[in-house]
Structure formats: C-alpha cells, structure tokens
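<tokenise_the_fold>
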Amino acid sequence: MSVAGSTGPVMDRDEVDRALARLGAEHEAVETSLLALQDHAGRRLLEGARLTGVTKERWAAAEASIGLLWAYFDAYTAALRSAREVRSRRRWSSREDLAELTELLRGESVTVAGGATAPVANAPGLTGTGKLSERFTLTSLVDRMNDLYASSLDMVVAADAVWSALPARIDLLSAELQRTRRLAHSAGVRPGEHPAGDDLERITRTLGALRERVVSDPLAYWVPAAGSSAPGGGRPDTSTYDREARALEDVRREIDAVLTVRQDAEARLVRLRDLLSRADRTLAEARSARGEVLAKIAATEVPVVSGPPTVLQEQLATAAEYRRHAQWHRLSPLLEALEQKAEDELLRARESLTAVTAPLAVRAELRGRLDAYRAKVARHGLAEDPELVEKYEKARRMLWSAPCDLRVAEQAVLRYQRAAAELIDGSRT
C-alpha cells in the first residue's frame, strides 16, 4: 500500500476500477433521472402555466434547483471523464497515476462555479453561502444531486397529481351543474325566489374560483403525507370539491321533488279537496247530531262544534293558482303543508262527531244491556215476575223517552239487573 495522502491511503488498481464502476453506474442513474424529470408532464405544465401563490414560489426555487442539477451533473461528468482518462493511460497504472486517481475519486476534486447557487438560496437542501464556487468529492456531489432531485421531483409530482385529479372532476361537476341549472329553470327554481336557486348560484361561483386557483396554484390543494419522505408523498385536497358536489346533489333532490309536484299536482289537489270536503261533511254531521243530542238527552254537557277553517280553503285556492301559473317551487311546500293540515282537520272533525254523539252511544249501550237482561230472565222463566216487569218498564220508559236523563236511566237499569240477578240465583237453589 502506498503512502497515505490528504485523502487517505492511496487506492490500488482494483479499488480504482471498482470505484470507477460504481461512480459510472451512479452517473447513468443520475442521467436517467434527470432526463425523466426533464420530460415529466408535470414539469412541462409548470413551465407553461401562469402560476400564483405557493406554487409560483416553489416552482421558481425548483427551476433554479433543476438548473443547478444540470450544472452539478456536467461537473460530475467532466470529473468522471478525467478519472477514466487517467486510468486508461496504462494497463498497469503507475504509483503517480494511482495517487492522482485517489485524489480524483476521493478528494474534493470537483469545483462548481458559485454563480449557479445564488438563485436557489432558499431551495430545499441548499443554503446561501455567498461563495463564488463550491468544491465536492464525487460521492458528496452525488448526494447533493440526489437531494436536489428529490425536492424538485416532489414539487413537480405534487403539482401534477393535483392537476390530474381536480380540474377534470371540476369540469364534469360544472357540466352537471349546467344541466341542473336548466332543469331548475324549467321548474321555476330561480335565484331570489327559491333557496335551491340561490344554492346553484353559490356553487357556480365556488366551482369557478376553485378551478381558477387549482390551475394557477395547485400546491395550495396538496396535503403532504405525514412522515413520508418519498417524492410526491401525499394526496390532493378535494374537500372543497366534495362539499360542492354534495351541495349540488342536495339541490338535485330538491328540484326532483319540485318536478314530482308538477307531475302529480292535480291528483294531490283533488285529494286535498276530497279530504277537506269529508271534514266539512263530518263537522256538519256533528252539528246535526249535537242538536239531536240536546233534544233527546237531558242533563248532559255536549261540546260545541266549530265550523270549518276558512284559511285552509284559502290556501287550497292559492295552491290551485300556483298550479295554473306553473309556480312549482311555490306549490311544493304549500302542498306538503296543506296535506298535513287537511289530515289533521279530518281527524278533528271525526273526534268532534265522536264527542258529540257519545251520549247517544251511552243510551244505546244501556238499551242493549236492558234487553239482554230481559232475554236472560225469560230463559229462566221469570219474565212474568211482577217486580221485574215493573222495574223493566220503568227503565224502558226512561231510555225510550225524550229527553232522556242518562244518569237516572242508568240507575234504573242497574236496579233491574240486580233484581233479575237475585231472582235467577234464588231459582237455582
């Protein structure tokens, strides 16, 4: 082994050949990567785009880094060529050749003019030293190129990923938005007249602004992966797009509901008229029944029957007017509210009729109970018993006379029941 120098022990021929082979392979790998970066679709798009915001700032740094990469690569190529020339002088390199090769392959033998460093003072992996030139070993130069390449590729891949993911999706959603706007217009859903129309205007403005910014500043919509150091590690931020897509879907459902109203509006109006008519007839029946109850039943509280609410008829007339003028967006909520109110009104009318006729139902139940006990007494051969006949006739007169006092009549029925039960029990013993 030769005497050691500033770069350590002088390399022998085998070490030199292995180092040249390794550095040559690294040279090919770096060259392939640089050419791929130069031809990357994202880089070409960045070169031709009118950038703004964080993307503009990072692309300026990345461009300087790529320029410096090529300067480093040229210096690396020249240094590697010089080392190969020294090795090719002789088949068996002399001690002087080996010392020179050791300095070329291990020493800071590569000098890069410092003019290229100034534009990338803020680029990832670089610091502004203010030196006019930099010196590297071939190995450290490869490390520096790898760092610059990774940071530049990360920026290019991120921008390309956002451009690949968002603009096309925004365009598709915008096309769907235009179809929805036309449908909304046909259904009378317009801004200032219906909330869904206002939503469509807002979605239109938001999508337009989103696309404009995505195209000019894609990195504003890039979310780096936590803990990832790989170039392009992350995902496009689609939260704004997703929110507007959901909002448009909600608007479509609202418009579908309005269109459904247009299709079956007449049938629903007919059903509403029928419900309100049935409610009116039921209330009329309740009022008539109340008069009958007051005439036939004495000492009974009979609830007052109110008349039909005129507001429902007015609202029904308004709904019919909306239908005639094709104001479907106004008709839809009105029909829904009217249908519920009409059902409630019919239920109220039926409850009124039930409450009013309750005394008649009680009288009918007492009549039935009296006749049932008389039949039971007859089956036991006691129908001619004078006491039972007297009690039966008294209860019957009360139940079949007007006005009928239900409380007194019920007591008469109970007395007949008790007397009948005692006689039947006595006949069995």
